[in-house]
Amino acid sequence: MSEMAEFHDELRAVARDLLDKAGDEVEWRQVADAGWSGLEVPEELGGAGASFVETAIVLEELGRAAARSRYLGHVLAVGALTALSPNDSRDALLECIAAGTPVAFASGFTLLNGVVSGRAEFVPDAEGADTILLLADDDGTPTVVSSPEVVVVVQPVLDESRSLAIVTADGAAVSEAWPLPVDPSALHDRAAAAVACDSLGVAEAMLSATVDYVKVRQQFGRPIGSFQAVKHACADMLVQTSVARHLVNAAVARVAEGSDATIAVAMAKSYACGAAVEVAGKAMQLHGGIGYTWESGVHAYLKRAMLNRALFGSPAAHRQRVAARY
Amino acid sequence: MSEFDDFRERVRRWCADHVPPDWRTAQTGVSDAEFAAFQQAWFAELHAAGFAVPHWPREWGGGMSVGEQIVLYQELAAADAPRLVLAFVGIHHAASTLLVAGTDEQRQRHLPAILDGELWVQGFSEPEAGSDLASLRTTAHRDGNMFIVNGQKLWASGGAHADWCLLLARTDPDAPKRKGISYFLMDMTTPGIDVRPIRNAVGDSHFCEVFLNDVAIPAANLVGAENAGWQVAQETLGAERGMTMLELAERLGNAGFGWLVDECARSRSDGMRPLDDGVVRDRLAQFEIELAGLRGLCRKVVEGHDSGSVGPADPSIVKLFYSELLQRMTDFGVEVGGLPAHTVLTKSMSSGWESGAWALDFIGSWEWTIPGGASEIQRTIIGERGLGLPREPASA
Question: Which residues of B touch A250 (CB under 8 A)?
């Protein structure tokens, strides 16, 4: 096994162990202590100098645990900062982020006359963030802006494992403004890929829980997993999950290498996020009445899969991007 | 993929020089003999270029890396090259059986012969042994250094042209059903073999019934130990799955999908194009996404075969996903093709499973969801071997 593969296995094992112990919510302090907040931060700024491939492993494990954490918002913000040309203020912020400063990222703002305005909905992990980075249009130049004057209003959603908010800036003062040297769509691709990783983890967790359950649940004097109707449904879950895994890996690799990832991400996001809802739904079905209880927790996965499917582009929207090439 | 640029260019040039430009028309509505002659000639051309058995080990004439194989299949598909229909069982199933379980003598006897055009047929299924293959009734009684075979085989694709047959027969009627079967190499010229073509749903007669009446097979033609034939079949079926699927997935992903887009982009009599319909575009995108997943899975199975990391259910996942995707894509071709799609009454021999004759392709797709372990059997295998789910009590 290559050194890289060993590192990935270890990262995955540590993540699974930590999240097992953490329960529904993983404290941000734990995330920082585990080194995940600095994964993609350059080593000279106190990070691990790793790539999106490693971040993707953590995202997938968070999905597998359906854990509440600030990681998605963090990943989007780090993506924006690492896309910038290095400079002192950016580097200082990345250093804080690696050490555990909570951040978030929102897009759709305008920079005019030195102040920033705009409104973004469903911004992950904005509440409680020390810094919310805004992607703003500065007379045609995409610019990453930080402002101390943004207003955050929480948007409660059915999926309790995610924190989303409306972020508003109305002529807000700007503390930093960095021109973004890449196409802003790359940041959107990264966000969509991150959610696809999460959904892959959700699907894998639901498949695994269902397989464990149908092996032990007895009806008509035998494990229900021995019935073809149940077995074949599980087989389809594995097929979907396997296809999703391939598409997600391909998209993550492209995002990590910095090449145009739009199509690969559109494929992964639409397929994996659609599949996760189907797999979690089938998991609820095959768990029977128990699966429909609050206590079983299956609903938490189904709700997370449903929200993931809608975040950063619906499957149909992503398929439109694929179809634009025909 | 830049490391393969030179190789891709070489294959592309070769295709431009060698793929007969008019073969589709020339191969439509031809006699069986003409089809067979065309297949043999095409195989010889591919072999001369080193493209016939890229998946074989180097010492037997193959040795191409997985990356190169993918490029080869992509370019053959892009050039709309004919498929190796008759050689299929020989270069894939027979070869992998011999490589995995054959003796040196058997390999020496047959692998070079396959490269010279020896054709093979699979004699597994029987009238009473389809999905429950292990209940097969064809018997082989040992008589000195020979086995005497009696019985009937069914769905033997290419049986009319085959020189040799991969045969499963019962050698111990008293043993449990999976423990009394042996695996043989049977010379199709042996007296007592009667091959009768069966017309299939598409209308052609590629597959056959094979009647076996006191057919004598030398004991040296056993593959593996006597009564271990079931285990040999299990080992060799999975081994060849990834290889065969790699080519089929690249074909479906290149030519097949391209034709589907073309079909949707064709203006209809009212001047409208299906491609301008958002629902059609969505379906096409979904197919392309699933194709990307399929191609990745195939590659993983082939690469995993070399490194020993193929999951126990991976070959079944690939077969199931390919065959159902093929069925849905060809169905969509028929749907979008409208009534004109139904006026295409023949499909070119030697073409892929997706030929652009959508209605016939759709009918023909059941040749993928039924044989080689029907989709229901694949799902059972995936559930039991891939996920460790308990067996049905009846088959325990």
Answer: 292, 296
Architecture of domain B2-94: Orthogonal Bundle (1.10)
Residue A50: which residues within 8 A CB-CB, separation 6 or more?
A: A39, A40
Q: Which long-range contacts (CB under 8 A, 24 or more apart) does A216-221 make?
A: A217/A288
Chain-chain contact of A243 with B376 (C-beta, under 8 angstroms): no
Establish if B282 touches chain A: CB-CB under 8 angstroms.
yes
Closest CA to B258 of A11, A114, A325: A325
**For chain A, which residues make up each domain, given as ranges?**
3-179, 185-323
Nearest-Cα distance to chain B for A246, in Å, is 6
User: Topology of A185-323 in CATH?
Assistant: Butyryl-CoA Dehydrogenase, subunit A; domain 3 (1.20.140)
Predicted confidence (pLDDT) per residue in A143-183, tens digit: 999 999 999 999 999 999 999 999 999 999 999 999 999 99
CATH code that applies to domain B232-395: 1.20.140.10
Q: Which residues of chain B make contact with A204, given a CB cutoff of 8 A?
A: none
**Rounded to whole angstroms, how far apart are CA atoms A19 and A21?**
5
H/E stretch holding B196 reads: strand B193-197
Confirm or reject contact between B300 and chain A (CB < 8 A): yes
A303 DSSP 8-state letter: H
Distance from CA of A320 to the nearest CA of B (A): 7
Show Cβ contacts of residue A312 under 8 Å, excluding neighbours closer than 6 positions: A188, A191, A192, A195, A269
* pLDDT value for A89: 97
The predicted-structure confidence for B222-239, as pLDDT tens digits, reads as follows 999 999 999 999 877 766
- How far apart CA B199 and CA B205 sit, in angstroms, is 4
**Nearest-by-CA chain B residue for A225:** B389
Residue A18: partners with Cβ closer than 8 Å, 6 or more residues away: A26, A30, A34
Which among B281, B284, B389 is the nearest to A225, CB-wise? B389
Amino acid at A24: D
Contact call for B285 and A322, based on CB within 8 A: yes
Q: How far is CA B18 from CA B23, B53, B144, B233, B349, in A?
A: 11, 17, 50, 36, 18
> What ipTM was predicted for this assembly?
0.89
Range B120-226: architecture per CATH? Beta Barrel (2.40)
Nearest to A61 by CA among A13, A97, A99: A13
Per DSSP, the three-state class of A172 is strand
In the residue annotation, B226 being an active-site residue is answered as no
* Per-residue pLDDT tens digits for B121-172: 999 999 999 889 999 999 999 999 999 999 999 998 888 999 999 999 999 9
At B239 the pLDDT is 64
Quick check: B25 pLDDT over 90? no
Catalytic, out of B45, B75, B126, B240: B240
How far apart (Å, rounded) are the C-alpha atoms in residues B211 and B199? 17
Mean pLDDT, chain A, whole residue set: 96
Q: Does pLDDT of B1 surpass 60?
A: no
Confidence band of A1 (pLDDT split at 50, 70, 90): low
Q: Which fold has domain A3-179?
A: Butyryl-Coa Dehydrogenase, subunit A; domain 1 (1.10.540)
Residue B396's pLDDT band (boundaries 50, 70, 90)? very low
